[in-house]
Amino acid sequence: MRGGEYMPYYKDKNNNIHFLDNEKFEQLLPSGCLKITDIEANAIQNPPLTLDQAKANKLTDLANYRYEKECGGTTVSGMEIKTDRESQAKISGAVALAIQIPTMTFNWKSKKGFVALDKTQITAIGQAVGVFVQACYTNEMAHAKAIEALTTVAAIEAYDITTGWPG
Description:
The protein has about 170 residues and is of the alpha+beta class. The protein folds into two domains: about 10-45, no CATH class; about 50-160. The protein has five helices and seven strands, in the order βββααββαββαα. It has helices at about 40-45, 50-70, 85-100, 120-150, 155-160; strands at about 10, 15-20, 35, 75, 80, 105-110, 115. The longest helix has about 30 residues, at about 120-150.
């Protein structure tokens, strides 16, 4: 409604929606337009999700959630370790270097400052981060399989992707 007047909706032959400020301008519409209700116009403009669309949306949400968890950090031997992609690469590089030069000391910066790590310690961190990241992907896979098995849009929209993630 606008200024107390009803704004009629119309649909054309291609299901495109048109509306007018006043019905007296109907001659301006494409030929073959039919007058429809607000409810019909809303249904055309906002069609319900298909099962495939709902699954695709939920799987995208799941992948984004896994990424947040994967890159959110973990704790190893009481140390908070960053697990963003750059940190994962640096840890992997340090582990590879520790294998090549076993006597090397790694000066690593933690949230509490610098710590000196030996081969055993940096390898343990690398293994823990690798296991953590793999657990994130494993949980994402389990959720993805569960989502793919769902048979209604309502069940997909209600599905909780926030369970089972590593700490």
